[in-house]
Amino acid sequence: MTTRPVWTDPAAEVHWPPEHARKGFFTDTSICIGCKACEVACKEWNRNPTDGDFEILGSSYDNTGGLGANTWRHVAFIEQDRERIEQARESGRRLVSLGMPQVGPPEARTGPGAAPGADAGPGAAAASAPVDVLGGLADGTVSTADPTGPGAGMGVPGTGVPGAAGVDTAPPDTPEFRWLMSSDVCKHCTHAGCLDVCPTGALFRTEFGTVVVQADICNGCGTCVAGCPFGVIERRDDGTVSPKTDRDGRARREQDVPHAGTANKCTLCYDRLVDGLTPACAKTCPTTSIKFGDHSDMVDSAEDRVRNLHAQGMTEARLYGANPADGVGGTGSVFLLLDEPEVYGLPPDPRVPTKDLPQMFATAGIAAAGMIAATALAFLSGRS
Amino acid sequence: MTLSEFDSYRPPETRRRRRSVLRAPQDGFARRRRRPGAGTNDGSREMPIVEDVEFTSYYGRPIVKPPPWGHEIAAYLFLGGLAGGSALLGLGAQLTGRGALRRSTRLTALGAAGAGAVFLISDLGRPERFLHMMRTVKITSPMSLGSWLLGAFSSAAGVAAAAEVDRLLGSRLPLGPLRGLLRGAAGPAGACAGLLGAPLAVYTAVLLSDTANPTWNAARRELPFVFVSSASLASGGMAMLTTAPSQTVPARVLAVLGVGGDLAAMALMQRRMHPAEAEPLHTGAAGTKLRWAERLAIAGGIGTIVGGGNRMAAGAAGLALLTASALTRFGVLEAGIESTRDPRHVIEPQKARLAARRAAGITHDSITTTG
Lengths: 384, 371
Description:
The complex is a heterodimer of chains A (384) and B (371).
Chain A: H1 10-13, E1 23-28, H2 37-46, E2 73-81, H3 82-97, H4 122-125, E3 177-185, H5 193-197, E4 203-205, E5 211-213, H6 223-227, E6 234-235, E7 263-264, H7 270-273, H8 280-284, E8 290-294, H9 295-311, E9 318-320, E10 333-337, H10 357-382
Parallel strand pairs in A: 1-10
Antiparallel strand pairs in A: 1-8, 2-3, 4-5, 6-7, 9-10
Chain B: H1 71-96, H2 99-122, H3 142-168, H4 178-209, H5 214-218, H6 223-242, H7 249-272, H8 275-282, H9 284-307, H10 311-339, H11 344-359, E1 368-369
């Protein structure tokens, strides 16, 4: 059992007074219905212009494409057959067996509703050895018959028949077909690549620990676009990133484009946060797939939820960004995914480039010294 | 069963093949597997809208975004290196009393830096805000440090070049009492520009590598050496083009050293990268440019050694070296842009390094966890 890595507070790192907790999203894709209300609410609140010319992209029900300068929430649609579901379930199971970071000892992590005295302990769970790390949740305290039923909801107490060791704990039948729907958003990384490489100071860390662009400062140099390991931030223009074509001779729709030529991305509705409001996407989400709150609460709910799903045999469930030891120091927006991250268009092992910057500067220093030495050598040898 | 007569027009049902679950998802990068008539033909089951797909990426869409950097930035990479190397040659010429070499390299340094700055500003999304680069000094931002570096270099190179221009024009510039000051400042300014020249030539390598771009980031250990070598051969080539051979011996030596360094660093860089990260460097338009850069560098290097003493031959060799350097910069920039188009360049190396860490027993730092 690895000890739990500690989250760094990005707002405190830049000397914000500790008035606000770090805020974040928990996007639970297992209860997303793909309604795209988040996309619409985001566009409306932030007055973002349209992307493209309403083309059909031929990718299931996703005609948005991806996150960009004008799209700060993007709902991915993936259709999968039985085979892919089984593969996802298997890859999730392997994550468990690899001993991924866990929260404390299993005994301390029984289901939210489990009474302290209830003997749902490790002894009973030992019967189902592969899911031992679930700490008693697997021993029949949660119904395994219905993986998508109401019992799968967040925060529903996992109390069932205590000590029902004879209940069949085999994973439920794999469905023939499923849709993965996932609302993607800026990760608001603990160590944000875009923020680090911004030369003007247009990008800054807010008191809520989020990363925001000041549109009146950004001069559109584009370094942040390359600095983001998730491909979130983008310059709002017709440059090499997203050329907008004239289709059938039709001109692009006339529209008001605010902050043209500057970098744009999700602000986690900074303007709403300062007034104590919930971000537009989370506010509008009808299934509570997008949850908003204090970042530590979000991580806790995410961890509860994934344990819950594993206990029900849905071993394809996994968290993305909930590990402060990962390459970006953990993300402010945590996701629960039902397959490998790359299936959703997320990088499998992102790393903030500035992590290697000291070595890069050292290498560059050696190279520069070599150039000076080569020139000196050239003049010394040229004397004769 | 269906009762609709139109169902008889559907293609015959094909059995869904079951592939092994145990097959590792990272072996090969499968895309859409087109298969006619996937699904059932009696309408009793849900028919997928998209044909049977094997996903290891999201519809093959990019994961990281390319920066909005066009040819202007590639041109700046070349001009910045040329300016830095020329200033360094100018300092050497200044110290060893080579008047003609000093004059041509100082003028080249200012011209290249000035043109490069214009290219940089024109590539901004909001060019009128270029001075916002000077709002802050940020050690984590190579672009910020580079802006200050370019500003300081250009100022120093400007003073040194102004003195040369004044001398060329026979003191006809309307300077008045400032002429003495300019003449006195030219030496220290030339030295200053020379010392800032090497950092100016190399910082752009850090600027490219300090990104999430798969090819540039993977090049971080060798790209600085590629860029200083490229700058050396370019500035040496420019001196051969502009200056009489009697004074260009050091420039020729530097150019040949640059060719050697360029070839070695480039080869090492490509060998140490993950194949998926190196691929854009030897395929497509970028690959063609880099291949020609290599050929021209070799040709220019040989020309420098063999015909460096002949004015015409030296000029031709210098031109070949300049073209080689420019092609190297354009090739590296375009390869990086290209590497973001296919998510394979991102996914494969990342999965490989994740698997390597897991194999080594490091399991605590994955972004994917289960609670």
